[in-house]
Amino acid sequence: MQSRVLAILIAVVLALVATAAMIVYVNGADRRAISGQQLVYVWVATKNIPMGTSGEDAQNGDMIKQVAVARSSAVPGAVRSEEQLRQRYADVDIVKGEQLLLQRWVGAEDVGGRRLLQIPENSQAVSIGVDLVRQVAGFVTPGDKVSMVVTMPRNGEDKTEFLLQNVQVLAVGATALTRASQGTGGRVNQGKGSQTLTAVTLAIQKQFVQNVVFAAEKGSIYLTLMPPNAEPVAKGKPVDESNAIPTATGP
Prior knowledge:
- The protein is α+β, with helices and mostly antiparallel strands and 251 residues long.
- It folds into two domains: 39-113, Type Iii Antifreeze Protein Isoform Hplc 12 (Alpha-Beta Complex); 117-225, no CATH class.
- 22% of the residues lie in helices and 28% in strands.
- It contains four helices and ten strands.
- 21% of the residues are buried.
- The model is unreliable at 178-194 (pLDDT under 50).
């Protein structure tokens, strides 16, 4: 009789222990589920972000935004604050809708120069030294389209003519197209006497690279700003002393 009672008591105790363990497990699962559903804020791409884009440009260009997601949906290593992207550049192309991962954003020292310039296909980046006057008083900026007008000796006398037109400006000083400046930008001394020049980097079609370099070495180049969607000017006769004063005036 006593053994039977003892067995019943043991069974009751084991049942109570099992029930308590189940309650603890269920409560823990509930807490984990609730924790996983808690909202956290992450940054996501709202547009495709090209490799080399700075965090500042991504934000200023409305390429990224902060959204609330369930904690369980947040990717490990996701960017949580805009401060994490300061002074950093996309190390890979980022697709629209992706959560931003901090490991994909690197410092300027880890970004190759080719990543800071978006060079069009079949073109090469060429930098020339141009003073403020010859770059429209400093109004030439990355993304502009310019024409290049060169004056240089031809057949024993100076002649002025269009060298190239509709040329894309990739960078001015240290400020590149669609990138935040890695330095302070501004002027750099190119060594022509005491004149202070700015390095203007242009996307030159590869077949004209030698022409531009020769003109920069042997002549004087002015840059002219072109309006959006402007048509190139018909290339006429070079201007020299004999025809510098036009025969007609007005538009």
